[in-house]
Write a structure and sequence with these properties.
This protein is α/β, with parallel strands linked by helices and 272 residues long. It folds into 2 domains: 155 residues, no CATH class; 87 residues. Helices cover 24% and strands 27% of the residues. It contains 7 helices and 12 strands. Strand 6, helix 4 and strand 7 form a beta-alpha-beta unit. Helix 5 runs parallel beside helix 6. The protein is globular and about 65 Å long. It starts with 16 loop residues before the first strand and ends with a helix.
């Protein structure tokens, strides 16, 4: 970086795949100088520690020739990785915000539990969130719950053009309440690790009732697994406890339930 002079004339190369991860947006000026990012077939740019959200978005998008308004989908993941400091390995938790564009172009911004150089509101102020049509929310950190100050309430509340939504994290079901009422949601997919329980379905029912949308306009897809608990077998749980809840959900949406029994829970229930 110290020897790099952006004034020098270069002939940028085109690569089939560009996959770069850097601590902040400073390295992107070097990337622009040596590679033709716009014409490459697949590009992923991941910034671990954004210094300035506006500069980061400009460097990762406009300078490449990609307009922010072209972003179609957001993927919010709560993740963890092992980090070694002074010979001691610890786990760090962070959100990764993946902005997906047509043509296999992806920009990833990290927000760490310990290092918060930007906020969700900062992103909302510098990105046309109302253009996003799909949102996916995932927890890949095991069963850890994200700290309340880090949860993306402000971002979800800005997605007025949202048409489809996928929730794969029990801790984030409550974010459904932040989806704008004006958002033309047509498909909601719920696929929770370990399987859905009654409490998950009840939370979804409250949200659908609050939206008061035409049941024919919304499809709720329940995928993954379901399981029983306590004195009920897994099948008793489904037929005698979940069935009334599913019927209640059908009053507010077309329900497609393709879940299968959780094998581990089924095995446990058979020994009770």
């Amino acid at each position: 970086m110290d020897a790099f002079d952006p004034r020098h004339v270069r002939n940028p190369r085109v690569l089939s795949v560009i996959d770069v991860a850097c601590h902040n947006e400073d390295l992107l000026s070097v990337l622009h100088a040596y590679f033709n990012i716009k014409q490459s077939m697949a590009v992923t740019i991941e910034l671990y520690s954004v210094s300035n959200i506006e500069n980061a978005l400009t460097s990762a998008m406009e300078r490449v020739g990609v307009q922010r308004t072209a972003g179609t989908s957001l993927d919010i993941r709560y993740e963890t990785e092992s980090v070694s400091r002074h010979g001691i390995r610890t786990g760090e938790y962070y959100f990764s915000l993946r902005i997906l564009f047509p043509g296999n172009f992806t920009v990833i911004l990290r927000m760490g539990d310990q290092r918060m150089n930007w906020r969700w509101q900062d992103f909302v102020e510098h990105f046309p969130c109302d253009q996003i049509t799909h949102l996916s929310i995932t927890n890949e950190s095991g069963y850890n719950s994200p700290p309340i100050p880090l949860r993306p309430h402000r971002l979800v509340a800005a997605l007025e053009g949202l048409r489809s939504l996928t929730v794969s994290d029990r801790h984030h079901i409550h974010l459904l309440n932040d989806v704008p009422l004006v958002a033309p949601i047509t498909v909601v997919t719920v696929d929770l690790p370990g399987g859905t329980v009654i409490g998950d379905l009840v939370a979804i029912w409250h949200w659908l009732r609050y939206r008061s949308a035409d049941p024919a306009s919304t499809t709720l897809k329940l995928t993954g697994t379901f399981h029983g608990h306590g004195m009920y077998s897994i099948y008793e749980q489904y037929h005698y406890m979940e069935a009334p809840t599913i019927a209640a959900l059908q009053m507010h949406a077309a329900v497609i339930d393709t879940r299968v029994p959780n094998i581990a829970t089924t095995h446990l229930a058979s020994h009770i």
